[in-house]
Amino acid sequence: MNANASTESAGTPELLMPQALLARTAERLAAQYRGIVSEQTVERVVFESYTALRRTARIHTHLVTLAGRFAAERLSALAQSTGASTKTVPEVLFICVHNAGRSQMAAALLTHHAAGAVHVRSAGSLPAAVINPIVEQAMTEVGLDLAAEFPKPLTDDVVAAADVVISMGCGDACPVYPGKRYLDWQVADPDNHPIETVRLIRDDLDRRVKALLTELHPATT
């Protein structure tokens, strides 16, 4: 039996098996966002999120749970971008191609250093199935655990909610919205590199996010 058989049987339509779980997820999120986002929009975002993650997933065992987390992030971003909810801290979005290396490292480092003073998201223009294990190792060495993270596709809602959008090697994939700060960081891709090189990339990103945090919140540093 292959890895996908734990949740999907042969010949079963793509969304039939998880449909009830996704519907419950949508109900829970609709209750959380009642009066902020319509139930129809919540349901659409939940099912879209599942379908988007399924395209690159290797194992589907926890895919509904991940889709729920992804949908919750998107709904939060949607509420912020439409003014239905108020931002309390600056929003930073990191983007790279696969969301499996640079953008994940940068997001984890900024989240750590900001200690709640900045809200951070990350995404990929062509997300991978999993985070690069060498990247996970390099981050574990500095006390940051990426085990619960996963690559996410880039969506308009998270870009619209961001105050600062930082791309690393994803070209013109990012939609442009007025009134936002766009930065392009020339950072090497850790893919197919040994741990020694990935450590250098990690440390480069650490310096960059600290400088960014100083600009966003001088008191934090």
From TrEMBL:
Pfam families: LMWPc, Phosphatase-like_N. InterPro entries: Phosphatase-like_N (IPR048716), Ptyr_pPase (IPR023485), Ptyr_pPase_sf (IPR036196). Keywords: Arsenical resistance. The keyword Nucleotide-binding does not apply. Residues 90-215 form the Phosphotyrosine protein phosphatase I domain. Transmembrane segments: none annotated. GO terms for biological process: response to arsenic-containing substance. NCBIfam families: MSMEG_6209_Nter. This is Arsenate reductase. It comes from Tsukamurella pseudospumae.
